[in-house]
Design goal:
InterPro entries: Di-copper_centre_dom_sf, Tyrosinase/Hemocyanin, Tyrosinase_Cu-bd. By secondary structure, the protein is mainly alpha-helical. It has a single domain, classed as Di-copper center containing domain from catechol oxidase (di-copper center containing domain from catechol oxidase). The protein is 31% helix and 6% strand. A two-stranded parallel sheet has the order 1-8. Strands 2-3 form a two-stranded antiparallel ribbon. Strands 4-5 form a two-stranded antiparallel ribbon. The longest helix has 20 residues. The protein is globular. The protein starts with a helix and ends with a strand.
Length: 363
Amino acid sequence: MRLLSSIIASAFFLGVSSLGASAAACTHPSVRREWRKLSVVERAEWVSAINCLANLPHDDSLTPTVDPSVSNISPVNTSGSYWDDLVYVHMDLNTKIHNTGLFYPFHRFYVQAVENSMKERCGYTGAFPYWDWSIDAHDVEHSPLFRESDHISGVGGWGDPAKDFQVQDGGFRHFGVAYPVPHIIRRNFTLQPFLPFGDVPMFTNLSQYANETFTPAEVHKLVTWTPGDFVGFQAYMERPEGPHASVHFILGGDLSGYCPSNAPQPCIPQPTFSANEPMFFFHHAMVDKIWYDWQHANSANFWAYKGGSVQNLTSVQALHDWPNGMAPDLHFDSTIPADGMFSEVAIRDVMDTTGGYLCYVYE
């Protein structure tokens, strides 16, 4: 069950969140665009900024807040990079930010925090791009995205099976990460990734083709989801074989949380360290865009919010009863945890992407 829990489971603008002074007005929001709509120069700047974060030293501000017996992760590696620190935040908070009411707010906050770091520490000037995986759902393996082998502007392709599926080309061919052990990021296209989970009761369709869950039709279903039904909207996105999990697992390697070959045994596969892979942030920017689109699809959706703070994946029935968390309930004034890496804000602050703390729209 611990494995299932792992599987499913400083703002750039000068204003402060509603926890302090009012945020600065958002008068010129940045525009987030699909990766393929960026110029080669814009792509190169993004790849360079990500690599820059991975070449910065560890930040002692990182302060894990979850008991290791719950998070089930290794201690902080102080010889790691600033990028590894960003990854560790996701690792540490894993059980708090999946299948709870923090899923959408935290990941919106998290992508923004990474963009802020790229700007403040590495001089990035662009808006954060997203990967519209619905475009590629019909043939993810041969997507043009994974044929971008240019060492300056490409994200690289699938890994080499003879080298533990380590990425061999593109701008991340030397992208080293610290968790769970030091290694180069890995990708392994896996069309039916749920087959190994026969002993995990929550997975009810083991033969599911992952790409069938994030087609344009499936995205349309989410964007047009029942007005005001935030819980159902999240449950459909985050269900065990839903689009969120399927994109993680179809890319295999780090994004799916499979252990590197050099990891000491026993090593429990766990997507807590899925944020190793820069594609994680493309993926979650798309997840955020779907929330954004749903928010703007109907006036009843914009401030729709409900969720608990305690994850319960103990049974199929528990997941059905509390798909986004048990009590104590979260509310707009609840704090989004940041493990000391960023100034904490309230859920209210991330509900509106042009509200002041955030200042962006999607194309």
